[in-house]
Amino acid sequence: MDQRVLLEHAIPTLGLDFAASSLLQVAEGLAAAKVTDRFNGIAAAIGAAIRGRDEEERIFRAVATHRSDIVRIWACLSARHNPRPGFVDRLRKARPFAADGNMSVREFAIDIFRSFLVEDPKPGLAILVDWAGDPDPNVRRCAVEGTRPRGVWTPHIPALKRDPGLALPLLEPVRADASRYVQNAVANWTQPEWAIKLCRRWRSESPAPATAYIVKRALLSLRKRGFEL
User: Which of 38, 155, 193, 224 has the fewest CB atoms within 10 Å of its CB?
Assistant: First the structure.
């Protein structure tokens, strides 16, 4: 469904009637924009409309738990555009989206907190270590993907490109993760020369099949990119 049409149908159920005109105007103006720009534009407009209102949290929860994955993505991105929360509050907002049943929503969850890691990853990494031990593999995977030095669709994290070892406290607990979803994320967490050394160490220290899979996948990817192993 077109995002503008979906927004028009969702406004009454979300309690956004007070901002209906301005929200629909924004959506109309984004009709010819790229999909991600429409997501960000509508999400930012929703966030601005509810910020500071007495019912802000109630409306946000309604958007965040909506049955449509598109609407939940708006909630993710509205949290991203909110300038107020610190890192801890951003993670609190991000966790339900990181555990969402829809893969696209899970991907957008990273946007809520990654900008803080770009600026200074150390404090955030210390908190995300807890996510690496979460019972939900989707949350563990989000912690790994959200800290990749070279994001695919997100800004790079310069400090982790210079010193990927900063993330070892987060990566070590998942080196033998039972979830293939998490294993693939760990295997893709690469800074080539450092990753080769780490794979060699993990292979010697951990006999788990999951570790063997992660190492094999990571090294295969590096070999395809022309690195000598």
Answer: 224
Termini Cα distance of the chain: 48
Tally the domains of the chain: 1
The predicted pLDDT at position 229 comes to 57
**Could you tell me if residue 33 is inside a domain?**
yes
Question: Does residue 228 belong to any structural domain of this protein?
Answer: no
CA distance 206 to 219: 16
Residues 127, 91: contact at Cβ < 8 Å? yes
Model pTM?
Answer: 0.89
User: Could you tell me the two tokens for 64?
Assistant: 């965040």
Range of the domain at 63: 1-83
> How many residues belong to the chain?
229
Cα gap 204→104, rounded to integer Å = 36
Is 226 part of a structural domain of the chain? no
Q: Does 179 reside within a domain?
A: no
pLDDT tens track for 81-140? 998 889 999 999 999 999 999 999 999 999 999 988 998 899 999 999 999 999 999 999
The two tokens of residue 125 are 């990494």
